[in-house]
Amino acid sequence: MIGKNILVIGGVAGGATAAARARRLSEAAQITIVERGPYVSYANCGLPYFVSGDITNRSKLLLQTPEGFDQRYRIDVQLHTEALQIDRAGHQVLVQSPAGQRWLPYDKLILAQGGSPIMPPLPGMDAPHVFKLWTVPDMDRLDDFIREHQPKQAVVAGGGFIGLEMAEAFAKRGIATTVVELQPQVMALMDPEFGQQVAAELRHHSVNVLTGVGVKAIDAATRSVELSDGTVLPAELVLFSVGVRPELALVKQAGLQLGPSGGLQVDDFLQTSDADIYAAGDMIEVLQRVSGRKVRVPLAGPANRQGRIAATNALGGAMSYRGALGTSVVKVFEATAAMTGLSEKQARDSGFDVGVAVLHKEHHAGYYPGGKELTLKLVYERGSGRLLGGQAFGHAGVEKRIDVLATALHGQMTVDDLAELDLAYAPPYSSANDPVNLAAFIAGNDLRGFAPLITGTDLGTALRGDHPPLVLDVRSTRERQHGHLQGDLHIPVDDLRARLDELPRDRPVAVYCRSGFRGHLATRTLKESGFAEVVNVTGGWVSLQLTPGLPLVQG
Fold first, then answer.
1. Residues 177, 171 contacting (CB under 8 angstroms)
2. Which of 147, 197, 151 has the alpha carbon at shortest distance from 178?
3. pLDDT of 455-464, one tens digit each?
4. Cα dist. 132→120, 129, 166, 485 in Å?
5. Which H, E and C letters describe 22-69, residue by residue?
6. SS (H, E, C) 153-197
7. How far apart are the first and last CA of the chain?
């Protein structure tokens, strides 16, 4: 394959990476990129930050140009050129450009067409103040509109990654913004408690958040949005970010095999059902490395790595792609939310016997000034102790811990392995036992029955059952004044040994404190004192407040 003709369809992320990799593998290969848009190899993940004003130099987003590709790589980039048809038998692709239609030959074809944002067919979607954000031209149109019209109110439909980034961008531009999310929470990929924390951060920065409701129609005349519950919101600017669908028109025309998740099917070498066609990026389905299921992971990191592998194999290599974890992170004003692997819900839906450990802890040593509380959640398999996933939220140190957990997932590590990790420590950066270690200690204690855990959700289910546990609050009297669980018993942890006779021994006991540590101490005291069924509410009162449906008494 060294001197063959490599044709790449799609010039962003996976496509650009594939073309550059192909050149590094072969100086003799003829390499062509076909891109239907006006730009090639741009930083689409950076587009919201140009709208927000965080990135001020637009040219920084344009990573490469056709001239640059030609000069550095001798790669022919054809912009404003759309692939219309693949002739698999003839090894050629019909393309449309301003100069007309023509056929481009290939020996090996790499598809990297990505996805496109879903724009639902609602009344008013064609109004001039309704936008999406996916390409540089999208960004330019949106930025020009804001500069020219100075909108005062905006509605963002969708509370995922781009929706949150754009809500922040609009707020930074002085636009009163409402996020509308059809799911019960924003950041629906994460578990509910993290959606709650993200929403609280948005509201703290004066962004309105409405969940469980969708956009029904846009009224261009009155500059308003009607929601599915009848609410009408003023909206001089509307942005849709409700999901991404893979670009599959060309794939379907060519008769290539699709997978169960709706993406283009590829094998471990990113080869499609046609031996001479490879694919990478948002359009393909890949193996979810923890669950073993085929999924779509529309993220830039996996797309770039897939492009590199696809090019390697198109030129005769045998490099396998082992799947993705879906590791992702989003900035929400001063806070960060991140996850890797499976959420608790995803793990349960995948059939795992799930354990959960939650830690609320300062991101570095408590005695060093400037500590920010970090919420860290481990999801693990009972029995084996294998890590299944992790989520985190906080104002410092979040992405560091998620990257550690992503590495652990890659190595199929257990919570006991996490407990032994030798992580960097100095007071400004961490504690002697990093939050990852501490969360693993909590999980290990649960697995061994030393201090069994219960989540707030499972506690709510137990309280509605036929034999509800006694709930014991072991916080201080001052802490309890700020709120507690309805019907619980309050005994501060330091008084517990002297008041054990106040607890029934024929009933399960669920213990909680503020964040879990004193609950752990109380759990051990009760178990050592002969109480057979004792569990500690993981994450304590902080997590209970983030759990929907619990009967809380607020102070």
1. yes
2. 151
3. 999 999 999 9
4. 11, 10, 10, 43
5. HHHHCCCCEEEEECCCCCCCECHHHHHHHHCCCCCCHHHHECCCHHHH
6. EEEEECCCHHHHHHHHHHHHCCCEEEEEECCCCCCCCCCHHHHHH
7. 72
Domain boundaries, position 101: 5-115+245-314
Nearest to 73 by CA among 133, 29, 132, 13: 29
489 part of a folded domain: yes
**Is 321 a member of any domain?**
no
Q: What are φ and ψ of residue 448, in 5° steps?
A: -90, 0
* Chain CA centroid to CA 187, Å: 7
Give the CA-trace dihedral at 64, 65, 71, 76, to 10 degrees.
110
The domain boundary, picked from 256, 281, 314, lies at 314
Q: Tell me the whole-structure pTM to 2 decimals.
A: 0.95
**Rounded CA separation 235/219 (Å):** 9
- Same domain? For 200 and 99 the reply is no
281: left (phi over 0), alpha (psi -120 to 50) or beta: left
Q: Which residues of the chain, if any, have pLDDT below 50?
A: none
Give the DSSP letter of residue 71. H
Cβ-proximal residues to 89 (8 Å cutoff; 6+ apart), any chain? none
Distance CA 311, CA 349 (A): 35
Half-sphere exposure (CA, 13 Å, Cβ side) for 420?
A: 4
Does 35 fall in a domain?
Answer: yes
User: How much is the pLDDT for 3?
Assistant: 72
> What's the gap between Cα 436 and its chain centre?
19
**Pairwise CA distance, residues 159 & 210, whole Å:** 9
In terms of Cα–Cα distance, which of 268, 271, 265 is closest to 283? 265
**CATH number of the domain residue 164 falls in:** 3.50.50.60
Count how many domains the chain has: 4
Do 378 and 431 have their domain in common?
yes
Rg (the chain; Cα; Å): 27
In the chain, % of residues over pLDDT 70: 100
Is the domain of 254 the same as that of 293? yes
Q: What is the DSSP letter of 468?
A: P
- Does residue 320 form part of some domain? no
Domain identity same for 371 and 440: yes
Polymer length in residues for the chain: 555
Using alpha carbons, list the distances in angstroms from residue 143 to 126, 175, 234, 415. Answer: 18, 13, 20, 47
306 and 401 share a domain? no
- State whether 11 and 94 are in the same domain: yes
283 close to 298: Cβ distance less than 8 angstroms: no
Within this chain, do residues 187 and 257 fall inside the same structural domain, yes or no?
no
Among 408, 373, 372, which Cα is nearest to 388's? 408
| d(C-alpha 184, C-alpha 528), whole Å | 41
